[in-house]
């Protein structure tokens, strides 16, 4: 059984997720921890639960989702996995991070790439990778259909969708990703987004003003 714990980090109120199961193996998704207090909050939880971190994954590589990459890689001796189409997005962070006040941002690079159709395994758990560009060119989501779980990054939010005015963003492509990749799942599937509260596929299909039935 997958357990999900989320933290809200950095001035962008970004959701960082730790997923683990009964084996105590765990993965960290989109570590946004920048301040020491945030890093300690993450590591204290992992230590208190007795978890072994086996994967570090970025759903996409905008600054607010990658601030803790270097810390996690060093602390837990894990590589960084992301989609190859977001490699340039990750490289660009060091250029603009200081403009947002992140003057101590530590640059990282992916150690391996993941693509649609790949599977992320930890403990007794398997997550399927889906390619969902539009907000970022190499955006992915991670899904476990058995438990109706989707770690959705910045594709679909409670009552909203990811912004498309950043480099590599495209509204039409984002709508295609949502409708062809996410809206095909069960209405009961819970989406854990990169910002804000969780939602369900059914709720967003019915009520989302950007991509739902009323849009």
Polypeptide structure, described:
- By secondary structure, the chain is an alpha/beta fold.
- The chain has a single domain, classed as Metallo-beta-lactamase, Chain A.
- The chain contains 6 helices and 14 strands.
- The strands form 3 sheets. It has a 6-stranded mixed sheet, covered by helices on one side. Strands 7-8-9-10-13-14 form a 6-stranded mixed sheet. A two-stranded antiparallel sheet has the order 11-12.
- Strand 2 and strand 3 form a beta hairpin.
- The longest helix has 13 residues.
- The chain is globular, with a radius of gyration of 16 Å.
- The termini are far apart.
Keywords, please?
alpha/beta, 6-stranded mixed beta sheet, 6 helices, 14 strands, 28% strand, globular, zinc, metal-binding
Percentage of residues in strands: 25-35%
User: Can you say what the CATH homologous superfamily is?
Assistant: Ribonuclease Z/Hydroxyacylglutathione hydrolase-like
CATH architecture: 4-Layer Sandwich
CATH topology: Metallo-beta-lactamase, Chain A
**CA gyration radius, whole angstroms:** 16 Å
Total number of strands: 14
Order of helices and strands: EEEHEHHEHEEEEEEEHEEH
The biggest beta sheet is recorded as:
6 strands, mixed
Discrete helix count: 6
For the biggest β-sheet, the strand order reads 1-2-3-4-5-6
Structural class: alpha/beta
- Choose one word for the global shape: globular
Mean pLDDT: 98
Q: Which segments are poorly predicted (pLDDT under 50) over 5 or more consecutive residues?
A: none
Cofactor: Zn(2+)
Protein name: MBL fold metallo-hydrolase
Pfam families: Lactamase_B (PF00753)
Keywords: Hydrolase, Metal-binding, Zinc
């Amino acid at each position: 059984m997958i357990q999900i714990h989320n933290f809200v980090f950095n001035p962008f109120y970004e959701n960082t997720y730790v997923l683990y199961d009964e084996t105590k193996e765990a993965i960290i998704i989109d570590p946004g921890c920048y301040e020491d207090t945030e890093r300690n909050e993450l590591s204290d939880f992992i230590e208190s639960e007795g978890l072994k971190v086996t994967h570090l994954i970025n759903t996409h590589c905008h600054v607010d989702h990658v601030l803790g990459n270097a810390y996690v890689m060093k602390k837990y001796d894990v590589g960084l996995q992301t989609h190859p189409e977001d490699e340039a997005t990750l490289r660009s962070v060091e250029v603009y991070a200081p403009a947002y006040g992140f003057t101590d941002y530590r640059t990282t690079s992916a150690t391996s790439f993941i693509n649609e159709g790949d599977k992320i395994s930890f403990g007794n758990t398997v997550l399927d990778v889906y390619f969902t560009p539009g907000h970022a060119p190499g955006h992915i989501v991670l899904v476990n259909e058995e438990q109706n779980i989707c770690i959705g990054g910045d594709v679909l939010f409670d009552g909203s969708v990811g912004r498309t005015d950043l480099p590599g963003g495209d509204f039409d492509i984002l709508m295609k990703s949502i409708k062809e990749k996410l809206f095909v799942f069960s209405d009961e599937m819970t989406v854990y987004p990169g910002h804000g509260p969780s939602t369900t596929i059914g709720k967003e299909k019915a009520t989302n003003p950007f991509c739902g039935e009323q849009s």
